[in-house]
Amino acid sequence: MTEKRSVLIVTHTGRPGAVRSAQLVLSRLGEAGISARVLDSEAEDLHCAGVDVTPASDTAAEGAEMVIVLGGDGTLLRAAELARTCGTPLLGVNLGHVGFLAEAERADLAATVDKVASRAYDVEERMTVDVVVRHNGGVTATGWALNEASVEKASRQRILELVAEIDGRPLSRWGCDGVVCATPTGSTAYAFSAGGPVVWPEVEALLVVPISAHALFARPLVVSPHSVVALELLPATSGGVLWCDGRRQIEVPPGGRVEVRRGALPVRLARLHQTPFTDRLVTKFGLPVAGWRGRVRD
């Protein structure tokens, strides 16, 4: 009996050309005998007949071989919410700007689908973070992130006063705009913009990056992936906001505590090319490498 293959398509339908790109993917998958499904929130914009429609929930990718994501990094982060619990790998096709999480560009779309059809891809796991918010001794909220969990001030007029803790020991008190707790995957996202280091994806670590902190010791930190990072808001400070991947928001009251640790579930990314991360950095950021000669042969 022939195996029935299925792929979920997630599209940023507001981007120019995204609908045409999705229709090309659907057509090519159909020609390869692979069934496709789309989200109910996108089906009308895609104008596609004969395609399964599924609710946009954390079960949307169940039973799918892959999620093909057409958009930028924000669309891929949205797709990660649908795929993480079922372990379905994501394949990003960049229709945006930098698209650091994307594996392919729009110009390679047909060849990309052909590689999916022939199973010419590998899957790698990316570390996530789990987040717990506590207040008055109880858990008030939980969350997770692929890129970063950031605690930020809720009021523009006031700074956030907090104490950072690593593995149960106080590290420093900061008056700041916020703190970013990032994964290596997120090191090229918000943490990068806040002045954090770029961390190669195969390095397992947690990054802690204060934002505009008024303190002598407020450098970006790289800690063990087994560490627990806690941020305690002082009772006298204004409230804060916890953002997970810049998409999901949780209020943190004065005196609240945010704990960040390695996530129990990774996000799986499909890879078509074994491109070194250094080459990705050069390409995505347009880094100048003219004059490089490489290793001189003996």
UniProtKB/TrEMBL annotation:
InterPro entries tied to this protein: ATP-NAD_kinase_N (IPR017438), ATP-NAD_kinase_PpnK-typ_C (IPR017437), NAD/diacylglycerol_kinase_sf (IPR016064), NADK (IPR002504)
GO biological process: NAD+ metabolic process; NADP+ biosynthetic process
Catalytic reaction equation(s): NAD(+) + ATP = ADP + NADP(+) + H(+)
Cofactor(s) it depends on: a divalent metal cation
Key words of the record: ATP-binding, Cytoplasm, Kinase, NAD, NADP, Nucleotide-binding, Transferase
Molecular functions (GO terms): ATP binding; metal ion binding; NAD binding; NAD+ kinase activity
Primary subcellular site in the record, as a coarse category: cytoplasm
Pfam families: NAD_kinase (PF01513), NAD_kinase_C (PF20143)
UniProt subcellular location: Cytoplasm
Binding sites annotated in the UniProt record for NAD(+): 73-74, 78, 147-148, 158, 177, 188-193
Any one of the GO CC terms: cytoplasm
Active-site annotation: 73 (proton acceptor)
The EC number(s) this enzyme carries: 2.7.1.23
HAMAP family: NAD_kinase
Family membership noted in the UniProt record: Belongs to the NAD kinase family.
NCBIfam families attached to this UniProt entry: PRK03372.1
Function: Involved in the regulation of the intracellular balance of NAD and NADP, and is a key enzyme in the biosynthesis of NADP. Catalyzes specifically the phosphorylation on 2'-hydroxyl of the adenosine moiety of NAD to yield NADP.
Protein name per UniProt: NAD kinase
Species of the source: Actinoallomurus bryophytorum
Lineage: Bacteria, Bacillati, Actinomycetota, Actinomycetes, Streptosporangiales
